Amino acid sequence: MWQAVNATDMCCLRRVLHRDVKLENLLINRETYEVKLINFGCSDILRMTPYRSYHGTEAYLPPEYYNGGEYCGRPVTV
Q1: What is the pTM (predicted TM-score) of this model?
Q2: Which of 17, 20, 56, 62 is catalytic?
Q3: Stretches in the chain below the pLDDT threshold 50
Q4: Which residue from 49, 52, 55, 64 could staple onto 42, CB 3.0 to 4.6 Å apart?
């Protein structure tokens, strides 16, 4: 879990919003237990202003977007 959180944090530090963090997008090496975040097809540049569209798996839709039609990238990544 720490590696997955660290990967998303590194994305944010590099101004990348993944937008589809889920188990299917974590590549886990069974021998070394190294975890990598993959599939950046839904990603966007991380910005400080709210996003008004969502791209990613609907089951993981941010509640803020569902309720108000917008969300901030860094808080929903956490």
Answers
A1: 0.86
A2: 20
A3: none
A4: 55
